[in-house]
From TrEMBL:
Family annotation (InterPro entries): dTDP_Gluc_deHydtase, NAD(P)-bd_dom, NAD(P)-bd_dom_sf
Higher taxonomy: Bacteria, Bacillati, Bacillota, Bacilli, Bacillales
Source organism superkingdom: Bacteria
Protein name: dTDP-glucose 4,6-dehydratase
Enzyme class, spelled out: lyase
Organism from which the protein derives: Paenibacillus agaridevorans
One annotated GO biological process: nucleotide-sugar metabolic process
NAD listed as a keyword: yes
Length: 339
């Protein structure tokens, strides 16, 4: 019997890495290939527990390298492509937009070409709610799949561009695709530059926690494991050509998030340091996931249960995020994979 082969791009990152582990453990009859370039946020140490499994393998490559990608598709004959690989940090996109266009737009186009040539069963493009722009503070307004795309940062503009390419390859070539747009993720193995892990690590070290502006910006928080189950469902049951929003029904201001973590760790709010606001900082994101829920998905974590689990995980895995902060993780590939 032919085994199902799944390519996961960006599988050394935060969400992609959790998805790789989810798939390897849930589907032992699927061969999961993790493709990642191992840029600054790419960390393979998180996969130490699955490296010996027969259904997991790793390939280091750039999704924008057409020759390497075409060769890999020809060799492996993938049935599924789950595309996470992206430059994703908004602050970095403001400083250097070019690399975001290179990876997020041109890299996606290379993958789409390969998927078209080699006839995959489904291409799932993992995007973000940031492509919709921002909402006001009215709690009755939400992003739906029909909300117009109005990105406000170079990062979200690059993701919106890749979304439109994916849609075009479905409409023009009949490529079987889905686009998912998620709210802010949190959970295990989150790179320490992002709000929640940054706050946890700094509070534990009694360091100041920077909060942009007045901290009133609102995000809808989604536990990464709930995100993984949603993508699994879309991968297997999503209607070709459709967009699915994935949200956690967990809106919080940035200041509320930081204060929740400080309180859980029994520290003082004196650690909060308000800093100059980010350029183009969107006020609020909130997702209506009704369409995905009608497909059969429900989140299992509230923010209260999810943040408790996440804080506990960071306390139990201090050695992981400390070696990320020190930069030691960047030597792992050479130690484990070099011949």
């Amino acid at each position: 019997m032919t085994r199902i082969k799944v390519l996961v791009t960006g599988g050394a990152g935060f969400i992609g890495g959790n998805f790789v582990q989810y798939m390897v453990n849930k589907y032992p009859d699927y061969d999961i290939v993790n493709l990642d370039l191992l840029t600054y946020a790419g960390d393979l140490t998180k996969h130490a527990g699955i490296e010996s499994k027969d259904n997991y393998s790793f390939v280091k490559a750039d999704i924008a390298d057409r020759q390497a990608i075409m060769s890999l598709f020809e060799q492996e004959q993938f049935q599924y492509v789950i595309h996470f690989a992206a430059e994703s940090h908004v602050d970095r996109s403001i400083t250097d937009p070019g690399i975001f266009v290179q990876t997020n737009v041109l890299g996606t186009q290379v993958l789409l070409d390969a998927a078209k040539v080699y006839g995959i069963t489904k291409f799932v493009h993992v995007s973000t709610d940031e492509v919709y722009g921002e909402l006001d503070f009215d709690p009755q307004t939400f992003f739906t799949e029909d909300t117009p795309i109005q990105p406000n940062s170079p990062y979200s503009a690059s993701k919106a561009s890749s979304d439109l390419l994916v849609r075009a390859y479905h409409e023009t070539y009949g490529l079987p695709v889905n686009i998912t747009r998620c709210s802010n993720n949190y959970g295990p193995y989150h790179f320490p530059e992002k709000l929640i892990p940054l706050t946890i690590s700094r509070v534990l070290n009694d360091q100041k926690v920077p909060v942009y502006g007045d901290g009133r910006n609102i995000r809808d928080w989604l536990h990464v494991w709930d995100h993984c189950s949603a993508i699994d469902l879309v991968m297997h049951e999503g209607i070709n050509g459709e967009v699915y929003n994935i949200g956690g029904h967990n809106e919080r201001t940035n200041l509320e998030v930081v204060k929740t973590i400080i309180r859980a760790l029994h520290k003082s709010n004196d650690l909060i340091e308000f800093v100059k606001d980010r350029l183009g900082h969107d006020k609020r994101y909130a997702i209506d996931p009704t369409k995905l829920e009608q497909l059969g998905w429900q989140p299992t974590y509230t923010f209260d249960t999810g943040i408790e689990q996440t804080i506990a995980w960071y306390l139990e895995h201090k050695e992981w995020w400390e070696q990320i902060l020190s930069g030691e993780y960047q030597n792992y590939f050479e130690k484990q994979y070099s011949i």
